[in-house]
C-alpha cells in the first residue's frame, strides 16, 4: 500500500516511542489496504458498506462506546468533553477488550477504522488517545 494515506485525510499519532496509530474513516479506505493491522472500532457496521469492500483484520465491537453512551452523545454533539470522559471510563472498565489493539501495537502500525463523519470529535480519537496515554500501564500488567 503506497501513499494513499495522505490522500484520504488520515490522522496519525504516536507517543514518540515507535507507536503508530492511524485513524481512517471507513469510506476513505474502501477497496484499499489500510496501513498495518486494521481494526473496525464501531459497534454498528457502517451503513451502506459491503463487507467485501472493507479490508480489516478484526471488528472490535467491544471497544466502541456502549449503545447508551453513543445515543446520548449523538443526541447532543455539544457534549463532546463529557462523552470523552465517559468513554474513557468505559475503556478503563473493560481493559481486556483492548488486548487485540495492544498486541497489534506491539508489532507495529495500527489503523482504527471508524464510520464517523466528524474526524475530530469521534470515539476513535478518544480510543487512540486512551491507548497512547495508558500504554505504559498496560505493559506493566502483562
Automatic annotation (TrEMBL):
<dbReference type="Pfam" id="PF22752">
    <property type="entry name" value="DUF488-N3i"/>
</dbReference>
<dbReference type="InterPro" id="IPR052552">
    <property type="entry name" value="YeaO-like"/>
</dbReference>
<protein>
    <submittedName>
        <fullName>DUF488 domain-containing protein</fullName>
    </submittedName>
</protein>
Amino acid at each position: 500500500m503506497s501513499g494513499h494515506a495522505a490522500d484520504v485525510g488520515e490522522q496519525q499519532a504516536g507517543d514518540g516511542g515507535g507507536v503508530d496509530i492511524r485513524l481512517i474513516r471507513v469510506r476513505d479506505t474502501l477497496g484499499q489496504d489500510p496501513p498495518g493491522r486494521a481494526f473496525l472500532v464501531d459497534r454498528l457496521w457502517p451503513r451502506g458498506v459491503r463487507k467485501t469492500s472493507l479490508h480489516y483484520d478484526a471488528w472490535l465491537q467491544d471497544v466502541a462506546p456502549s449503545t447508551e453512551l453513543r445515543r446520548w452523545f449523538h443526541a447532543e454533539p455539544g457534549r463532546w468533553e463529557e462523552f470523552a470522559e465517559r468513554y474513557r471510563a468505559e475503556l478503563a472498565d473493560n481493559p481486556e477488550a483492548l488486548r487485540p489493539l495492544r498486541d497489534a501495537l506491539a508489532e507495529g502500525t495500527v489503523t482504527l477504522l471508524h464510520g464517523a463523519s466528524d474526524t475530530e470529535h469521534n470515539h476513535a480519537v478518544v480510543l487512540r488517545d486512551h491507548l497512547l496515554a495508558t500504554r505504559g500501564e498496560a505493559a506493566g500488567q502483562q
